[in-house]
Design a protein that fits this description.
The chain is α+β, with helices and mostly antiparallel strands and about 425 residues long. The chain has ten helices and 16 strands. It starts with 5 loop residues before the first helix and ends in a 10-residue tail after the last helix.
Length: about 425
């Protein structure tokens, strides 16, 4: 039973603020590990990836933790239990980025995990399990197109055919691994022993506006939405803009526009999230009727059945809109991920820790995908969201407050200690 005095609460909050300030400084420092001097770009198996791993390993060592890199390029730290063969609790997130990224997406969760390890080491807290901190190598999938590579490798879901994927320069994943110093034939060695893993916790910025709207620093994640992505193509007939009468046209862009409007209608009918983020028009001349239009579709929901029902309705609506204009429409699915529910026990642990931290208990779903999704079926997983300014993410304007980072650190510290059945230190913290 944890004993939490008022004095203890003040001391924990004070140390959390100090640690959070250090985390913010390190987020700034890690932003310099980039392929581009003008913005953050840190992709899988790049020089920036290697640089980031080296920097993070140094911080892990400073926190008095063991460090290593696994066979796919994930970087690890361990706060060691006295019992060699004790089970393992994993906390972490990803270190890779999108192009022109912010400083905190993924990174925050890794660095808070290191600070948790530092706290445990400084106060010589004996947990009945090893605490492993992981910085996953490729959550975003920017370079080779496949996502969650690092976390899927941990969970034993690595696919050997991934080594045949190529980047925009034609470099295969296998070639990139060799250049990085890894052996593509040993990629599956990154799998951890499932029976030894107690669970996985990921701390991540919300990437949305709900916590800010609620005026709260952190929230417990209940579900992670399942996403499906498609490439659509609408085929019409190109022609001269000055000679083909309007009533005789088969304008692919007008048809695609009707389809895109139907996407918005579907979101309202079925309460799903859907986005058309890419559109290209051919031949693309100012005086030519569009004959061919490509557009993307990303559709998400916390309930797969609702998402799929919306998709079925949408495809029928699109076909109708194109048929009435004398157009054809076709599509291919390029990504599919089922929705996942966070472990109920993890949710309760985090909620109790929020209560003990004098933070209003609240929960929310995630519309974005995360490494935690790869843990489904492998180990119980939980997620904690941290408020971010205006919900902006995947952008240089991404921002958080040091007080919110401190709140997140306090919550996960209490949750991990409660999971281990140990008391937080009551002595003055410095």
């Amino acid at each position: 039973m944890l004993v939490i005095s008022s004095k203890n609460k003040r001391e924990i909050k004070a140390e959390s603020l100090q640690a959070a300030a250090r985390v913010m400084q390190r987020c700034d420092a890690l932003a310099l590990a980039s392929l581009n001097p003008d913005y953050i770009e840190r992709t899988y198996l790049s020089k920036a990836h290697a640089q980031a791993n080296k920097i993070v390993e140094g911080w892990i060592s400073e926190a008095q933790m063991e460090s290593w890199q696994d066979s796919v390029g994930n970087v690890w730290g361990r706060y060691t239990c006295k019992e060699t063969y004790a089970p393992v609790l994993i906390i972490g997130s990803h270190l890779d980025s999108v192009v022109n990224a912010g400083k905190y997406d993924g990174i925050l969760g890794v660095l808070l995990g290191i600070e948790l390890g530092n706290f445990l080491a400084r106060h010589q807290i004996d947990l009945p399990f090893h605490l492993d901190v992981v910085g996953f190598c490729d959550e975003e999938g920017v370079r080779f197109g496949a996502t969650l590579l690092g976390s899927q490798a941990l969970a034993g879901k690595w696919q050997p055919e991934w080594t045949e994927l190529t980047d925009e320069r034609g470099v295969s994943l296998a070639e990139a691994m060799i250049e990085f110093g890894l052996d593509p034939l040993k990629a599956m060695d990154a799998k951890r022993d499932q029976e030894s893993i107690l669970g996985f916790l990921e701390v991540h910025i919300e990437q949305g506006p709900l916590l800010e709207k609620r005026g709260l620093p952190v929230g417990v994640v209940t579900d992670i939405a399942g996403a499906r992505r498609f490439d659509f193509v609408v085929e019409g007939k190109a022609g001269h803009s000055g000679t083909v009468p309007m009533f005789m046209r088969n304008d692919a862009l007008l048809g695609a526009s009707s389809c895109i409007q139907a996407v918005e209608e579907a979101t309202k009918r079925f309460d799903v999230l859907a986005t058309v983020g890419q559109v290209s028009c051919e031949p693309g001349a100012v005086n030519v009727i569009p004959g061919n239009v490509h557009f993307s579709l990303d559709i998400r929901s916390a309930k797969d059945v609702v998402r799929d029902r919306a998709l079925d309705w949408l495809v029928k609506k699109m076909r109708f809109e194109c048929q009435r204009r004398g157009l054809t429409i076709d599509y291919i699915e390029i990504h599919s991920a089922d929705a996942v529910a966070c472990d109920g026990r993890w949710q309760r642990l985090l909620e109790n820790a929020m209560h003990d931290s004098d933070i209003e208990v609240n929960s929310l779903a995630s519309g974005a995908g995360h490494d935690a999704m790869a843990m489904t079926g492998f180990t119980p997983m939980g997620m904690l969201f941290v408020r971010c300014a205006e919900g902006i993410s995947h952008h240089p304007a991404e921002a958080i407050e040091v007080e919110d980072a401190a709140a997140a650190l306090e919550v996960i510290t209490r949750a991990i200690c409660k999971e281990g059945g140990v008391e937080l230190p009551s002595q003055k913290l410095t």
